Amino acid sequence: MTDIYNFDVVVAGSGGTGLSAAHTAAQNGLKVLVIEKLNQIGGNTRISSGFFAIDTIEQRKQGIQLSYDEAVKQLMEYSHYLNNGSLVKQVVKNAKPTLEEIKKMGMKIKLNPVTETTQFAHRNNLYAGGSYHMYEDKPESYKNIQDYMEKEGVEFWFDTSFEKLLHDENGTIIGAQVTNNIGEIIKIKAKATIIATGGFGGNKDKVAQVMKTTNLRTLGVPNMGEGLDAMEEAGAVDIDGTALIHAAQLAKSAVSKESNKQHLAGFSNSPITRLLLTPLLWVNDFGTRFTNEDVVYDTVKWANAGWSVGGKYFLIVDSSTLKDYDIKPQLEVSKAGPGASTDKGDFIKLADLAVEQKTAFKGNSIEELAEKTGMKKSTLCKTVENYNKIIEQNEDTEFSKSKDSLVYDIKNGPFYAFIAQVAYLGTIGGVRTDSHMRVLDKNLNIIRGLYTGGANAGGYYEGHSYPAYEGLASGFAWTSGRLAGLAAVKDIQNKE
């Protein structure tokens, strides 16, 4: 027997999108149910660090006055106008009131000054680096939010998985079918259904298919794409679902599992990470240099460059460079992505350990290093020869790397090649919506009763890339959720 329950609004997922949508519907007097397959709220938003917003109280207190129009312009230009301008404008203008709502519910916020940005490439851009409203005391803040929402009448069902959408004979969505932790099938009848299940980051096969590579490293998020699949079955169109590629990581040991726990969010406590996070020589599988390595100072550009060569690349160093890193590298160590360990260490020993763990290769000559890595000898030798000339002349005639980064040549063996892999923190993008997060079909008609946001909604980003404006994806999650909730409230009220 299948149980049937009735609500005004059912929300699938309790990350920032789902929480914001549910709160907005409840504060407007609607009866709201949130289903969550985990045993706590927060979803993938819980691992995010902050919220992108413009013209906030926090910014004004620091004398920062930013323009909505300029923010929209920058986001549109970054994405080459492939994103949905009306949606971008709506989200940017609604981020501030959304931030005030989540603060009211109990999320503690601290504005991160642009001078303290971990994205060194953003130091001169208040929009990219000075709009990061960081979450403080997250465990307590999420508890505060859940308590607040329960007091306003939101009902939470944990350990309950979304299965499929329910629809009537006209194709209008009338709720969702779910399954609880003891296998009971339950039908939720609702006037509005909001899909906030967080993309498909847990589906490695789909990510590999979309990104055209199996080399990417994952954080291991649980979202399998069930919400996206259900919306597509209902007639929606996935226009830009993609992995949220985010910096790169050193390869995980192939022979030891001792370090596995160190790789949460890509972090390793080995000092060797300082090599990963400095602009040394990077080459692709063929032994060819492929980018300006200064991209290491910008999380997204770094990941994009790595993805362009299949999601994996090698950083090449000689023994003299490693010995210099024992003391202090002459290059500024990036704090982008997972950040680098500041622990002291013997870098030659660490490099030899990486070779033992099959995360690096070693050669007494460049020719031997090429052979070990599978590169063509003549190609890698020519790359290293050209790079050494660039260092000697202090001018990068290939990719215009800054002069400050032209420090380490590659002349004194043994030589090492460390494997780096692009990482992803779930997915972004998804189905086409209007600017109020109503889901559209292939003919751009509204699918009645169906709303989405966050990592299930398309139109905010450009294909495989997203602007590295700090807190952008998390801010979009909360704000798009609020917009979905407001649209649901309006549509329900207009029917009554």
From TrEMBL:
Gene source species: Ligilactobacillus ubinensis
Entry keywords, A to Z: FAD, Flavoprotein, Oxidoreductase
SUPFAM superfamilies per record: FAD/NAD(P)-binding domain, Succinate dehydrogenase/fumarate reductase flavoprotein, catalytic domain
Alphabetized Pfam families for the sequence: FAD_binding_2
PANTHER family tied to this protein: FAD-DEPENDENT OXIDOREDUCTASE 2 FAD BINDING DOMAIN-CONTAINING PROTEIN, FUMARATE REDUCTASE
Cofactor dependency: FAD
Domain FAD-dependent oxidoreductase 2 FAD-binding, first and last residues per copy: 8-463
InterPro entries: FAD-dep_OxRdtase_2_FAD-bd (IPR003953), FAD-oxidoreductase_2 (IPR050315), FAD/NAD-bd_sf (IPR036188), Succ_DH/fumarate_Rdtase_cat_sf (IPR027477)
Protein name per Swiss-Prot or TrEMBL: FAD-dependent oxidoreductase
GO molecular function, one term: steroid dehydrogenase activity, acting on the CH-CH group of donors
